[in-house]
Design brief:
Layout (H helix, E strand, L loop, with lengths): L12 H15 L1 H7 L22 H19 L7 E4 L4 H10 L5 H7 L1 H12 L3 H10 L5 E7 L3 H16 L3 E11 L4 E2 L2 H6 L1 E14 L7 E7 L10 E4 L4 E8 L6 E7 L3 H5 L4 E8 L29 E4 L12 E3 L5 H9 L34 H13 L2 E12 L9 E10 L1 H12 L3 E3 L2 H4 L1 H7 L4 E2 L1 E2 L9 E3 L5 E3 L3 H8 L8 H4 L4 E2 L6 E4 L3 E2 L1 H6 L1 H4 L8 H7 L2 E7 L6 H13 L4 E7 L2 E2 L16 H8 L1 H9 L9 E2 L2 H28 L26 H22 L3 H6 L1 H20 L11 H25 L4 H12 L3 H7 L18 H23 L8 E6 L1 H8 L5 H11 L1 E6 L1 H6 L5 E3 L5 H22 L8 E6 L2 H15 L1 E6 L7 E7 L2 E9 L1
Parallel strand pairs: 1-2, 6-9, 7-11, 15-24, 23-24, 25-26, 27-28, 30-31
Antiparallel strand pairs: 3-4, 3-14, 5-6, 5-13, 7-12, 8-9, 8-10, 14-16, 17-22, 18-19, 18-21, 20-21, 27-29, 30-33, 32-33
Helix pairs in contact: 1-29, 4-6, 5-6, 13-21, 22-23, 23-24, 24-27, 25-27, 25-28, 25-31, 27-28, 28-29, 31-33, 35-36
The protein binds zinc ion (2 copies).
Length: about 1000
């Protein structure tokens, strides 16, 4: 029987990973990992689709680490986990790219070019970077079916989106409304609440206080009103006061001409506006007294238009509850086309409808002084405000101006300041289903947990109706046809549209379906589709249905996989993908769309700034993969807070520390095992690797060796910890558990057990058969640990796990049949609690702790470890621990060896020195101890000499010495045994093969060696 491949301690992880990738590919391991699991035990995962309009960045890589680890884990737990990839194809990101390519700056240029042509260019750009994505995702070791992805632009997908829309429509959850909402004047479209929330930035704007002169007053009196959007002043049609608040008319000297002027403001704000002195209150009254008064419009563009509807109601003072004295003057400027409150007031009082700005953000022609100019130009957002202020000053109606800092929304796509603008839009009645959404959300498990009540919960609480219509082109369309008689028809399938129109419909994009008409059932006139398209988030939110072309196909498959067991995305998705899936799931299925969700944070550059392609402040992901390997990057990310919704400053140094402290260390342990196992031709007992418990195999008797029992118990605890964390979807907690175990394995178990693996011939102590069984137990233990560890780590570091598992289990025929020799087809280890010995683990951890402190104390006292010392004395912290043991000798023996001391005592030195320290070393070096220390130095010098002479480790030698006579006088036998000398003579050998003089503690010592 062939044994294991001997593994060198030197390794290139990236190269090893490339080999594994080849193996996975050739053996179709990913496909098998699905097909070999039972079809009736599904674990469902939905993939949030990325755009392929650029190459993958660290955000995608973090998401990929999460989206790969969890499915691999559940696969090994026995579930079938399909992983369908998806591509987001629609919306502004693609349209922007097309616009740039076509050098389009205005929306009307798209209409001129033709929507068909524009859409086809969008279509051609959507999948531009797919090859690059496949390369990076593949190299990262993420398993996903990228060969059969769903694409939101496919007809089947879009048909399901129509079906979703129709379901909502039929349930009365879709309505049209004319209201003010945020628009992007550059993209000329409305935006949803979540899109708006995406783009808030602190900006400095200009605020003005304008003077509105009351008509019909005996003395000239002006009402003061304050606004942070001076560009809305030409749209002013009213002022609002609160009838219950106190107002005052004051008089003061006009600063310009020195005449007395009169102003009206809220009483409470007068001092703030006019200063402590310098004004006199003329009259005080309730706001009710002002209601109904007329004032002179600041601009006459609309006021002079005699045909303006409801003109008689304009430019008067009204009461409004929303007016307070929090800011400004206590009197509000009302432009109903540019704010929700204003619009409500306008409706309630039949105010004239004045919208002096076009949807593209330019002033309309009738606003003659400013016609055609942008009200919020991107390059200089205050430009128009300055113009307005100048105009007011010229008219003598500018009371004050000031800089005003506030948070203002911008277009998430093109960064243009948004406008609050009255327009018609279609909405999903989210507020109606909100109670159900909140109720259903209770059972969703979030990792990290705080998102549930925090970001997500708060967003849900504040949810408003969802504006789903967009005035754009490359998107799923609203499947709504209208007739001039008012009849509306929502189409829920291609077949329905085809049968109504009598024509074949191959594509559901705007430029195609806009041409499809059919007669109205009521009046016989032609019905046309409304021009709007759908918010792209409607696509993403419909993904659970549309990825399977539900309900037109795969009905059963959908039902088995809805809701998803698991999804994952970044924190921003709490108000986007997570949210819209939840809205639609609640709306049409009265169900959650997902049960467990992991939320990741953002990867920032090392300096904490945003990663920027322009600044090149971060290493290219592909370079990192080629330099350190995917496993290292995965471990680094998975063990970091970025998988728990927090931000991570990417540090290449931390990553390389992980390579050294986890990967190299584990590799060395693995290499150690294979080296000795191949020397000894050792093979595992039958069934060893198949034991899912990771304990000793059925036909090998359990080891009674303390260290074996300890590491196997640690292994069980590790299984328990990783499994427990994975149950809670806490990936960083699970991942972090591996590093201390690898340290225990390498720096404690293997280091302290090396001798047990050596051939009997190699050590003087080793003897007969008893020693062989101890060695067998050591092999079995280390083998079990490595194989079990490879399975445990497989979801997290799939490459290294595969390498170890494949090599160590490859030759087992039983295994081959079932698993094809891949760890990813194996079952996840299950805890065997009979192997857990909590006391042992606690004691060993205490021993390691004492050793660490003891070695520190030696270093502090500047005493080499080679110098034996008399005693370590343990204080009260360890007293009970060790005294309670029947036989603490095993532990004491470890301490004696590690700390190079003669004995362990409890509290001896603490009592003597009146010390409260838990670890006290007796640092007195007696002449005997000193001599023994010298003996150690001598042995070391001779061993070094043997190495330099290139003797084999098992060569016996003759030894001659000059100097250190006292050491030899006392320890000749010990020295001879340690260095394998059969003869020892005073004086140099005449025929030495090797001779050297060294200085030991300031004394010359000559050694001469010869093989015998
Ligand atoms: Zn925009
Ligand atoms: Zn009709």
């Amino acid at each position: 029987m062939k044994t294991f491949k001997k593994v060198e301690s030197q390794v290139s992880f990236p190269k090893m990973e490339e080999e594994i990738l080849k193996f996975w590919d050739e053996q179709k391991i990913f496909e098998k990992s699905i097909s070999e699991r039972p079809a009736d035990k599904l674990y469902s995962f939905y993939d949030g689709p990325p755009f392929a309009t650029g190459t993958p960045h660290y955000g995608h890589i973090v998401a990929s680490a999460i989206k790969d680890t969890v499915p691999r884990y559940f696969t090994m737990k026995g579930y079938r986990v399909e992983r369908k990839w998806g591509w987001d194809c629609h919306g502004l990101p693609i349209e922007n790219i097309a616009e740039k390519e076509l050098e389009i700056t205005h929306k009307k240029q798209i209409e001129e070019l033709g929507v068909a042509k524009f859409n086809e260019i969008c279509r051609s750009k959507v999948l531009e970077y797919v090859a690059e994505w496949k390369k990076v995702i593949g190299r990262f070791g993420r398993w996903a079916d990228m060969e059969h992805p769903y694409k939101t632009m496919d007809r089947d997908f879009m048909e399901s989106v129509w079906w979703v829309f129709k379901e909502l429509w039929d349930k009365g959850l879709v309505y049209e409304s004319y209201r003010t909402m945020h628009i992007c004047p550059r993209c000329e479209t409305t935006l949803s609440q979540s899109e708006v929330a995406e783009g808030y930035k602190d900006v400095k704007d200009l605020a003005v206080t304008a003077e509105f002169e009351l008509l019909g007053e005996p003395v000239k009196t002006s009402v003061l009103a304050w606004t942070t959007t001076p560009w809305t002043l030409p749209g002013n049609v009213a002022l609002a006061v609160n009838e219950n608040l106190d107002y005052v008319t004051i008089k003061k000297k006009d600063e310009g001409v020195g005449e007395m002027v009169r102003f009206i403001v809220a009483k409470e704000l007068a001092t703030k506006i006019f200063g402590e002195e310098g004004y006199t209150v003329v009259e005080e009254y309730k706001g009710a007294k002002l209601v109904g008064k007329s004032y002179k419009p600041l601009f006459d563009y609309y006021a002079k238009d005699e045909t303006l509807k409801d003109r008689e109601n304009g430019w008067k003072i009204y009461h409004a509850d929303f007016v307070t004295t929090d800011m400004g003057t206590g009197i509000a400027h009302e432009a109903p086309a540019f704010g929700e409150d204003d619009m409500q007031l306008g409706k309630a009082n039949n105010l004239p409808w004045v919208q002096h700005v076009n949807m593209d953000g330019t002033m309309k022609p009738e606003v003659t002084d400013f016609a055609g100019r942008q009200v919020k130009p991107t390059e200089n957002p205050q430009e128009m405000d300055v113009e307005i202020i100048k105009y007011l000053a010229k008219q003598g109606v500018l009371f004050a101006k000031e800089k005003y800092e506030h948070s203002y929304p911008h277009c998430w796509r093109c960064d243009t300041p948004l406008l609050n603008y009255a327009t018609s839009s279609w909405f999903v009645r989210v507020t109606e289903i909100k109670p159900e959404m909140l109720e259903l959300a209770k059972s969703i498990h979030w990792s990290p947990e705080h998102i549930k009540e925090g970001r997500w919960g708060k967003w849900l609480e504040g949810a408003r109706d969802w504006s789903i219509s967009r005035q754009r082109y490359w998107a799923s369309v609203m499947p709504l046809w209208k007739c001039s008689c008012g009849e509306m028809k929502v189409i829920g399938s291609v077949a329905e549209l085809e049968s109504l129109s009598g024509q074949k419909v191959e594509d559901l994009h705007k430029h195609i379906v806009d041409e499809v008409t059919f007669p109205c059932a009521t009046c016989g006139e032609t019905m046309h589709r409304i021009p709007d398209v759908l918010d792209t988030w409607f696509d993403s939110g419909s993904m659970p249905y549309a990825q399977n072309h539900y309900p037109f196909e795969h009905k059963e498959q959908f039902e088995q996989t809805f809701p998803a067991n698991f999804i994952a995305e970044g924190v921003d998705q709490t108000r986007a993908w997570f949210y819209y899936q939840h809205v639609i799931g609640t709306g049409i299925k009265h169900s959650n769309a997902f049960q467990n969700v992991i939320v990741n944070g953002i990867v920032l550059a090392e300096d904490g700034k945003k990663m920027s392609k322009r600044l090149k402040n971060y290493p290219d992901p592909m370079d990192i993969l080629n330099k350190y390997g995917a496993d290292a990057l995965r471990y680094y990310l998975l063990s970091s807070p970025v998988v728990a919704a927090e931000n991570l400053n990417f540090s290449e140094r931390d990553l390389s520390d992980i390579v050294r402290n986890v990967f190299r260390m584990l590799w060395n342990s693995y290499s150690f095992f294979t080296t000795y196992a191949s020397i000894d031709n050792w093979t595992p007992a039958r069934n060893a690797s198949r034991s899912d418990a990771g304990g000793p195999k059925a036909d090998a008797k359990p080891s009674d060796n303390l260290m074996d029992r300890w590491i196997l118990s640690e292994l069980q605890l590790l299984i328990q910890e990783v499994d427990g964390a994975m149950e809670q979807y806490e990936l960083n907690k699970a991942t972090r558990a591996f590093a201390p175990f690898v340290d225990n394995l390498s720096n404690w178990y293997i280091r302290r057990n090396r001798r047990r693996f050596w051939k009997p011939a190699r050590t003087m102590e080793s003897g007969g058969g008893e020693d062989d069984s101890d060695k067998e137990q050591a092999y079995q233990t280390l083998y079990t640990v490595l194989v079990t560890l490879s399975k445990l780590m497989a979801p997290f570091t799939p490459f290294l796990a595969e390498e170890i598992y494949k090599n160590l289990t490859d030759e087992e025929p039983a295994r081959m049949i079932k698993s094809g020799g891949s760890v990813h087809l194996a079952d996840y280890p299950v805890v065997d609690s009979t192997l857990i010995d909590v006391t042992l683990n606690r004691n060993m951890s205490a021993v390691r702790e004492v050793v660490t402190i003891g070695l520190q104390k030696r270093a502090e006292a500047k005493i080499k470890v080679r110098q034996p010392l008399n005693m370590v004395s343990l204080g009260s912290k360890y007293e009970e621990l060790f005294k309670s043991l029947v036989d603490p000798h095993d532990y004491y023996a470890i301490l004696e060896e590690e700390l190079n001391i003669k004995s362990v005592e409890i509290n001896t030195l603490q009592a003597k020195l009146n010390s409260e320290e838990d670890v006290v070393l007796d640092i007195e070096i007696t002449p005997e101890l000193k001599l023994e220390g010298e003996m150690r130095e001598v042995v070391r010098a001779i061993q070094e000499g043997r190495k330099k002479a290139k003797f084999n480790v098992e060569d016996r030698i003759a030894l001659g010495y000059v100097g250190k006579e006292e050491v030899f006088g006392n320890f000749e036998t010990e020295i001879a045994r340690e260095v394998l000398a059969t003869t020892v003579q005073k004086g140099a050998l005449t025929d030495a093969e090797y001779q050297e003089t060294v200085t030991l503690d300031g004394e010359e010592f000559t050694l001469s060696l010869k093989r015998v």
